[in-house]
Design brief:
Layout: H1 2-28, H2 32-45, H3 50-59, H4 63-76, H5 81-96, H6 100-113, H7 120-133, H8 137-150, H9 178-196, E1 205-212, H10 215-227, E2 232-239, E3 242-252, H11 255-269, E4 274-277
Antiparallel strand pairs: 1-3, 1-4, 2-3
Helix pairs in contact: 1-3, 2-3, 3-4, 4-5, 5-6, 6-7, 7-8, 8-10
Length: about 280
Amino acid sequence: MRQLIIFFFINFAIICAQNINLYLTLIQKGRYEEVRENLPDLLARYPNEPGVFYIQALVNKDGDSSLSQYQNLIDSYPDSDYASMSAMKIGEYLFARGLYSQASIHLKRTIFDFPKGDYHQRAMDLMINSYIATGEEDSAKVSLQLINSLYPSLNYNKYGLNYLESNKRDPKLVRLDRNTISERINIVKARRAKSKTKKQVSKPWVVQVGAFGKYTNANRLKKQLQNSGLATEVHKINSNGKRLHAVRIVRYQSRSDAEKIGRSLKSKFGLDFRIINSPK
């Protein structure tokens, strides 16, 4: 009996996937009306299938309504392949409407949120064009550095931006005065000794900007943020039975201080963030 049930569900999934692929092919051929006519039957047969909701959004004549449907699909089925496809459709819509600031932020977030997608090159192309359209070439370069650390196989040279140029300044030779150095060392030692007698200020707030299954991906993002002058760490966490590697900027005395950093990161890099109370 159990084998029969498993067999039934496998066949159901295969048939469902075949039907969805069939309708997607019809959409690609421009046969939208034919798909719209059959959509009610498709929704009735597969009421909980994200692929059907994706088709529904594709053939919707109202662009704003389609955006809501795409977002609902992402929220309800975040692990589905159609969630990443929906996120890409939202980015394309924003770009086509000339909403370049929103498009650049959304497309960057899409690239980071859906590492298994196969659209990263196109998302990055639209993101860079959005930055260029708004005159934000510096933001484009920073974004390319971050994305390159996660997806090195993409084509980054097509944009003509020197995103890997070093910002490091050449060290200058300075003549050292031994007496001055000794005096400074004594001052530092005195400050350290004084600080030991004071009660340490608690800084329990951290800003989490991502959680990755692979440590290498988390470590790359950590290094990029550290290069921007942010104190960043990687922590192992458990989420829904899965072990993830969380990237966190540490530490802040108040929640408001942490939120300022989070908003700055989202504005500059397009990274979503969470404020977490995590005492040492």
